[in-house]
Amino acid sequence: MDEKRIYTTVQGDMWDSIAYRFYGDDKQIGLLMRANPDLLDIYVFSAGVPVYIPELPEEDDSDLPEWRD
Where is 7: in which H helix or E strand? Predict the structure, then answer.
């Protein structure tokens, strides 16, 4: 079941802080931005903006060495 997760921003939220909050890593900014193309012109969010939080894609283990399987 693919349930959409929506986060409602608070004043001062930024892409990196939202990514860190949900993924524990601000490097997932691109994932958030691709999922919310209508919000790309926002750098610092005001309160009350709904942001779709997609699930992290599953890691591709196919290129890992055999001992890492």
Answer: strand 6-8
Q: Read off the tokens for 12.
A: 């001062």
39 within domain boundaries: yes
Domain enclosing residue 13, as ranges: 6-55
pLDDT at 10 exceeding the cut of 80? yes
pLDDT at 65 over 80: no
Confirm whether 1 is domain-assigned: no
Q: Flag whether 61 is in a domain.
A: no
Q: Give CA–CA dist 54/17, Å, rounded.
A: 15
Q: Which residue's structure tokens are 């004043």? A: 11
pLDDT value of position 1: 44
**Cβ-Cβ contacts under 8 Å for 14 (sequence gap 6 or more):** 43, 44, 45
